[in-house]
Amino acid sequence: MHGTNTKPKVVIIGAGFGGLWAARALAGQPVDVTVVDRNNYHTFLALLYQVAAAELSAEDIAYPVRSIFRKNRNIQFMLAHAQRIDLANKRLETDNGKLDYDYLIVATGSVSATFGVEGVEEHSYFLKTLEEAVALKNHIICCFEAASREVDEDKIKELLTFVIVGGGATGVEYAGALSELIHGPLVRDYPGIDFSQVRIILLEAAGHLVAAMPENLRDYTAGRLGRMGIDVRLKTTVAEVTPDKVIVRTQSEKPRSSPAGFIETKTVVWTAGVRGEELPDASGIVVARNGCVPVTPTLQAAGHPDVYVIGDLAAISEEGLILPMVAQVAMQSGAQAAKNIVFQLSGKQPQRFCYRDRGSMIAIGRKAAGVAIGRRTFRGFVAWIMWLVIHLANLIGFRNRLMVLTNWAWDYLLYERAVRFVFPSTMPADSRLRSCARAFPEEKI
């Protein structure tokens, strides 16, 4: 790819937050950088749930990778799906050819974890990709279309029952956004439906929601969801998912006892957990039980000083604890990995990664959010404004910021969701192939 150029070659796999921040830190350095991703866009995952709730369009939170680096002469982009790392020969194998490297940064992120629960993979909806978010939005709207024509009361209740599994940030934020979609725009769209039959049920295996947040914000979150009419069930796990119901157990039951009961529904949204993407395991890199790679304090894979693992895929230990899978960890670890490569090129030792916690936040619908910064916490409208500003600031691209701000203002002022369309989508998204590879299966692009 680089011809006779003798500059060291750095390959970055993944154009998420970690990969982008690593590439930015290497811009202008005496290296040739190739960013590899199966999609030609970066997704702002923090707002993915709003695409699934018809608040934003998919294009509002995606930005072309080539546009990000068009001014950086030493950074190239390659549309390809990384299939295997040949560690011995320092070569990345993709569905679009092979790519040699001198240094490798693996930032492929995480995928949904089903924990082996029967039926989850086949019958649940996930929220990890744009395709999945669009498919879920389509499904929600189609449930109301079907309910508006249905005459059987039991089938109507089944269509209007929405089960969200997982009380972390994604599950909580989607529950709030879905409630506002249903009890706002959809009430006006479907006057023939009895909306007292709508149920949104949030299941969480632990004894509280959003475990990473301070206790007062956890309590605030639970109270806010309750006031929105969302049925929060704590200490409840899923035993099985079928096409028309989810079988649940309560924590108080003995492991060998029969299930506690079932919920009849056509919609199960699985946000219960994530695991590391499979590339490291397929390449012979040591991974933990959750698929993440235990890295050295300098973010290198054990035994491979030329391979850095960052972001959600890395099990980064600090003071005996593994850092959370959040964007800030990805961005900071990506920048540090890039710096360490520059250190290595200059004959210096890589530096230890030190994470700077800038706080956490969660939105719980309209004018309600929780923000924790150090020991200080904020709730309600003030926290919601902070959440809006910070998310807008972190979006890539002026157009994206403008469109998101416009849609938020439209929703806030008029209680309207502007993107209630049923567009074609593929579900589940085929993560093993590039979109172009699906379109042109016989060609290498």
Strand content: 15-25%
Silhouette = globular
What is the count of DSSP helices, taking H or I runs of 4+ residues? 13
Structural class: alpha/beta
Under CATH at level 1, the class of the domain at 120-272 stands as Alpha Beta
The value of Rg in angstroms is 23 Å
Properties at a glance:
445 residues, alpha/beta, FAD/NAD(P)-binding domain, 6-stranded mixed beta sheet, 5-stranded parallel beta sheet, 25% strand, globular
Plain-language structure description:
The chain has 13 helices and 28 strands. It is α/β, with parallel strands linked by helices and 445 residues long. The strands form nine sheets. Strands 5-2-1-9-22-21 form a six-stranded mixed β-sheet, with helices on one face. The protein has a five-stranded parallel β-sheet with strand order 11-18-12-13-14. It has a three-stranded antiparallel β-sheet with strand order 6-7-8. A hairpin with a 5-residue loop joins strand 26 (360-363) and strand 27 (369-373). The longest helix has 21 residues, at 169-189. The mean pLDDT is 90.
Topology:
Layout lengths: L8 E5 L3 H10 L5 E6 L3 E3 L4 H5 L9 E3 H4 L6 E5 L2 E5 L4 E4 L2 E4 L2 E4 L3 E3 L7 H4 L1 E2 L3 H20 L3 H7 L1 E5 L3 H21 L9 E5 L11 H13 L3 E3 L2 E7 L2 E6 L10 E4 L2 E4 L3 E3 L2 H4 L10 E2 L5 E2 L2 E6 L4 E2 L1 E2 L2 E2 L4 H19 L14 E4 L5 E5 L2 E4 H15 L3 H17 L20 H5 L6
Parallel strand pairs: 1-2, 1-9, 2-5, 9-22, 11-18, 12-13, 12-18, 13-14, 20-23
Antiparallel strand pairs: 3-4, 6-7, 7-8, 10-19, 15-16, 16-17, 21-22, 24-25, 26-27, 27-28
